[in-house]
Amino acid sequence: MSGMNRGAFGAIELISVLAILAILTALVLPRVLQTTKVTQARQTVNEAHLTQVMATLQALQPAITAHLAQFGSLASRNGTPLPFSETYDNFGQVLLTEGLIERPFELSLGTNATLRLVKMSQVTRDTQVDGSNGIYDLDGDGKSDTAGTGCVLEAVIPDVREVEARALNDRLDGPRLGAGEGNNDFVGRVIYRAAGPGGMTTVHIYLLHQ
After folding, report:
1. Nearest residue to 147 (alpha-carbon basis) of 164, 132, 126
2. C-alpha closest to that of 118 among 95, 94, 134, 130
3. Among 147, 146, 74, CA closest to 116
4. 2-71 vs 162-172: helix axis angle to the nearest 10?
5. C-alpha dihedral over 175, 180, 183, 184, to 10 degrees?
6. Could you give the 3-state DSSP secondary structure of residue 10?
7. Residue 157: what are its φ and ψ, rounded to 5°?
8. What values do phi and psi take at 65, rounded to 5?
9. What is the pLDDT tens value at each position of the chain, 210 positions in all?
10. Which of 78, 137, 67 is nearest to 100 (CA)?
11. pTM to 2 decimal places
12. Which residues is 190 bridged to in the sheet?
């Protein structure tokens, strides 16, 4: 009789455990599925952002070339020299004023992207790439390709997640000129510092130098 009681109690305990597991699964599974859907949605949105960045940068090239061909200088607006000491962050407005682009420059990646001119007059060929000084090692040979010129035109995108910066680099430069997670990427057209505590970095994208 005691054996039957132990068997009965064992079955009851097993049924109770299974019931609890079923309840927990019913509670947790929808949240897991929702999290998965959100993650997938974010990945899709990020891909869309990267595609938009690529399309915008490609569309900019004819406008920049036309500006330079017409006025002979990057650092000018309608042929009048732009007064700035080190950097000029509103070159997008210059192209808009000249009628070379149809709408204000903006990107769906990061926040408040700008087209920046960086003067190279104080920079020598010994100056190292630091991710913000206008120096670019475009081919990864360890040598500056922009020092000693007049100025560099770049797109600057603040508040970019490092994973997105690496993905953008892979699209523009290819993995060979990229950097691993948590490292500075100072070679190629796309350069950035390793993300800080907030996981964000500022991406600089080379467009042209003169």
Report:
1. 126
2. 134
3. 74
4. 50
5. 0
6. helix
7. -125, 100
8. -60, -40
9. 445 555 555 667 667 666 676 676 666 655 544 444 433 433 444 788 888 989 999 999 999 999 999 999 999 999 999 999 999 999 999 999 999 999 999 998 898 999 999 998 777 777 788 888 899 999 988 888 898 889 999 999 999 999 999 999 999 999 899 888 889 999 999 999 999 888 899 999 999 999
10. 67
11. 0.78
12. 205
- CA 107 to chain centroid, in Å, comes to 10
Concatenated DSSP letters for 28-90? HHHHHHHHHHHHHHHHHHHHHHHHHHHHHHHHHHHHHHHHHHHHS-SSEETTEEP--SSEE--
| Domain residue ranges in the chain | 50-209
Q: In whole angstroms, give the CA distance from residue 168 to residue 107.
A: 13
Number of other CB atoms surrounding residue 94 within 10 Å: 23
Residue the block writes with tokens 């796309």: 190
Cα separations in angstroms, 206 against 6, 24, 124, 138: 76, 53, 18, 8
Tokens of 201: 């970095």
CB 153 within 8 A of CB 117: yes
